[in-house]
Amino acid sequence: MIELDGVSIRQGAFALDGITLAVPAGAYAVLLGPSGAGKTTLLEVVAGLRRPRAGRVRLRGADVTHLPPAARCVGYVPQDAALFRTMTVRENLGFALTVRGAGPGSTAARVAELAAWLGLGALLDRRAVGLSGGEAQRVALGRALAFRPDVLLLDEPLNAVDEATRAALLDALDGLKRERRVTVLHVTHARAEADRLADVVLELDARRSPPVATGGLSGQ
User: Fold this and answer.
1) 194 contact partners, CB below 8 Å, separation of at least 6
2) How many angstroms separate the Cα of 130 from the Cα of each of 87, 127, 144?
3) pLDDT in tens, the chain (220 residues)
4) What is the pTM of this model?
5) I need a surface site. Which of 51, 115, 204, 218 has the fewest CB within 10 A?
């Protein structure tokens, strides 16, 4: 479960106040809102990359407000993918397992599984620098899922990719939704992504004072 309880953030002139939302365990939630509304900021708060000025962040029912990112055990795909450019695709996919002390055999098996699922087999020995936007997004998704997190945070994962890649990524994300093993918070400005993927739709509107996120079950 992902919960924000009365979260407030300040960054220069930008502010979000009193944000409260909840994503049930195993649900696929899509957070909608226009550019500049603060969607990425909220995702960073959940990931632990940004500390709220007030309020609480809870994951799996536990208060993680003051925990560092590594202690939250979440998978995170930032908008720009943020791959390790000097590493190969294989090394990027296996990074989270390597730093957690996984053995070479189990790491190689998981990397092969992710590469097959995401269509990355032909790219494994290429360096991340020079990948297309769609290729980078697929690698970033695989890297985030490598250690089998039960919470996944996605920042505009379908932004700036071609139609074929978008379709492939939608299928991959649809598969995650069907498995119900991961609680997902996916931020976007595209209503079509919510229509395709969301169990829970949340909306953030910076024009409201204070901005609020409101949730409801989609298609149920």
Assistant:
1) 30, 32, 188, 201, 218
2) 12, 7, 20
3) 999 999 999 888 888 889 999 999 999 999 998 888 899 999 999 999 999 999 999 999 999 999 999 999 999 999 887 898 899 999 999 999 999 999 999 999 999 999 999 999 999 999 998 888 889 999 999 999 999 999 999 999 888 778 888 888 898 899 888 887 899 999 999 899 999 999 999 998 755 544 444 444 433 3
4) 0.89
5) 51
